[in-house]
Design brief:
The chain is of the alpha/beta class. Among the domains are: about 170 residues, Nucleotide cyclase, GGDEF domain (Alpha-Beta Plaits), CATH 3.30.70; about 130 residues, Tetratricopeptide repeat domain (Serine Threonine Protein Phosphatase 5, Tetratricopeptide repeat), CATH 1.25.40; about 130 residues, ABC-type transport auxiliary lipoprotein component (Rossmann fold). Helices cover about 50% and strands about 15% of the residues. The protein contains 25 helices and 14 strands. The strands form 2 sheets. Strands 1, 2, 3, 4, 5, 6, 7 and 8 form an 8-stranded mixed sheet that branches. Strands 9, 10, 11, 12, 13 and 14 form a 6-stranded mixed sheet that branches. Helix 12 runs antiparallel to helix 13. About 10% of the residues have low confidence.
Length: about 650
């Protein structure tokens, strides 16, 4: 009998499975199977089809998929991770489904039944085994095919020995959000006061969102509600909306900042409508420059309406075209054109916001507080410089962008010391310079940042951004309870700012109230599900869970955090602790080594304690659980 030749081919292989599948099935078998079935129907199969993949086989919790192109395989994997993460929003932590994915390019053997065998498949399966929940791991062979072709953050995890694979494999992990966070902390920063040292600690614990803290800054309103300890949770609202980035039709790319400022202002104005749910600026701007399908956006973000439009600025005149779109039907609710002198663009924002509210039959929060800002807008040039300063702050964090922002804000204040956007912007910029180790005078810059935040509050007691910035500096000074009150005032004015919501939760953690902080962290993630700071926010959830000794949930959130951004030193440290608690000392030691490499303050327990921002007795007692776990993982005392 003539032996049939073995059929071989080169293929990109994607292996995926559900993280923690046995636990999910044990807790809720029918519910888990139903959710997986829905994911398969709504997310997995369509994504594989769109990216030209072929399902080779499936198991109860996993699958093997073949692609002709590694680029297609990676794009498919990222789409799966993104959509799965989005669908977890609002789902209880113990019921959330997340995938581990491995991708390899290699030679495969084709069986008579269509199954694939060989090292090409085995390496993909082993990469999936070591992938953190929510992440994608690539072999060197696969990485070489996508390098420079897909705009995602890729992290080299070094050469690793994989089970039953003869030679070590160099592993690359992709940030599943596709967007790396800026570097948060630098070593070797000198400061001579407790306050300056404490604000540096914000870069190490929970400071990841500081550079974009004041979304919609400088917008005012009259306070009409009583402060609440917890931000309101989302309910079905007649106004759930995303303000998509307005297009700049001025013919001058240098005017992009002005179109962005209009988008920011409208986002914050709409946030002040009672009962509204408004997607945060940072998530909305992930759609900038992309083809837009409003129905898909409505589904992804869970909003009923999208506001889009364009800005055309010629000389001293501004023309804005705006359209309100129903994301369920794709139809226009209304559209209009607004023409104003450049100096009156705040009134123009009021016109658009009021029109939306009237169209939907909503009661608009009283805008009398706006008169304060209008009265102070005596110098359009100063206001324009302030807007340019904020545009610089929203660029990827780097020393040159912070210096650019500082220079613009300083010039604006020289022209008009009452320009609120410049005052709050300079306060934040100075704090950022200290946090990131880029200040030549950390004590002086921190002191001035606080003075500026005080000035902003005096100029307008109803300025949400000013209260939030003052609260952040109070946190740096270890004044957590005072900071919490400032955050509550800020949220009373505007309850739709995710970073303020998150930082209020952080103050509760530092005062021993982690259980009360969890709804705030959930709310922040709901408001900005695609935020660049998502890895930090996931860490905050994980830290709260481990302090409460809810170990399974802590593992889920901390795994998600290190997968979203492996360069978060504090997330790696707590991930080491939870892995030690769960008994995986190998994973714990690896994470501990990573944490110490990223931040020298995480090379001993003594140094770790110096980064903390609280000596509250309840919090210290809760933290002892983490410290004991870190000892178990191998962190020395000194």
């Amino acid at each position: 009998m003539v032996e049939q030749p073995v059929e071989r081919r080169l293929a990109a292989i994607l292996a995926a499975d559900v993280a923690g599948y046995s636990r999910l099935i044990g807790a809720d078998e029918e519910g888990t199977i139903a959710r997986l079935r829905m994911l398969r129907q709504d997310v997995i199969d369509p994504a594989i089809s769109i990216h030209h993949g072929h399902i080779v086989k499936t198991t109860g919790d996993g699958m093997l998929v073949e692609f002709a192109s590694v680029v297609d395989a990676v794009r498919c994997a990222l789409e799966l991770q993104r959509q799965t993460s989005d669908r977890n929003t609002g789902v209880a932590a113990d019921k959330q489904i997340s995938f581990r994915i491995g991708i390899n390019l290699g030679d495969v053997v084709v069986e008579s039944d269509g199954d694939l065998m060989g090292d090409g498949v085995n390496v993909a399966a082993r990469l999936e085994n070591i992938a953190p929940s929510g992440s994608v791991c690539l072999s060197r062979a696969a990485y070489d095919q996508v390098k420079g072709k897909i705009a995602v953050a890729v992290h080299d995890r070094g050469r690793q020995r994989l089970k039953n694979i003869a030679e070590p494999v160099q592993v690359f992990m992709i940030d599943s959000t596709g967007t790396p966070l800026p570097s948060l902390a630098r070593s070797g920063i000198r400061s001579t006061t407790v306050a300056a040292a404490a604000i540096l600690a914000l870069a190490a614990v929970g400071g990841g969102g500081a550079w974009y803290l004041l979304s919609g800054t400088g917008v005012t309103s009259r306070v009409t509600q009583t402060p609440q300890n917890v931000a309101p949770s989302r309910t079905a609202s007649r106004l759930s909306i995303v303000v998509l980035p307005f297009s700049n039709l001025s013919g001058d790319p240098g005017q992009d900042y002005f179109a962005d400022a209009v988008t920011d202002g409208l986002t914050t104005d709409l946030s002040r409508i009672q009962g509204s749910f408004v997607i945060a600026r940072n998530t909305a701007f992930t759609y900038k420059g992309r083809p837009i399908d409003v129905r898909q956006i409505g589904s992804e973000l869970g909003v009923r309406y999208a506001l889009e439009g364009s800005v055309q600025r010629v000389g001293d005149q501004v023309r804005i075209n705006a359209q309100l779109i129903d994301t369920e039907t794709g139809g226009h609710v209304w559209s209009d054109r607004f023409d104003r002198p450049r100096s009156n663009y705040l009134e123009l924002q009021d016109d658009i916001t009021g029109r939306i509210a009237r169209m939907l039959g909503l009661e608009l929060v009283v805008l009398a507080g706006r008169s304060i800002e209008l009265e102070h807008q005596t110098n359009p040039t100063a206001s324009d410089l302030a807007l340019q300063g904020w545009a610089a702050l929203y660029k990827p964090a780097a020393p040159e962008t912070r210096e650019e922002a500082r220079r613009l804000f300083e010039r604006a204040i020289e022209l008009d010391p009452h320009t609120l956007r410049a005052v709050t912007g300079l306060s934040l910029t100075l704090a950022n310079l200290v946090i990131n180790g880029q200040s030549s005078n950390p004590d002086g810059d921190l002191r001035r940042a606080y003075e500026l935040s005080e000035r902003a509050v005096r100029l307008d007691p109803n300025n949400a951004a000013a209260h939030a910035q003052r609260a952040r500096i109070l946190q740096a000074q270890r004044r957590q309870r005072e900071a919490a009150e400032e955050y509550r005032v800020s949220l009373q004015i505007n309850s739709n700012v995710p970073t303020t919501t998150l930082f209020l939760g952080e103050t509760l953690v530092f005062t021993g109230k982690s259980l009360d902080a969890i709804p705030l962290f959930e709310r922040a993630i709901e408001l900005s599900p695609r935020d660049p700071g998502l890895g930090t926010w996931q860490f905050e959830m994980g830290r709260a869970m481990i302090l409460l000794r809810r170990d399974d949930e802590a593992l889920t959130w901390l795994s998600r955090s290190v997968a979203t951004n492996p360069r978060l030193a504090y997330a790696q440290l707590y991930y080491a602790a939870i892995q030690a608690i769960k008994g995986d000392l190998s994973a714990a030691r690896a994470a501990l080594e990573t944490a110490g490499r990223l931040n020298p303050n995480y090379t001993s327990l003594a140094k770790f304690k110096t980064t903390d921002l609280s000596d509250d007795p309840t919090y210290v007692e809760q933290r002892a659980y983490v410290e004991e776990a870190l000892r178990k993982a191998g962190l020395p005392e000194q």
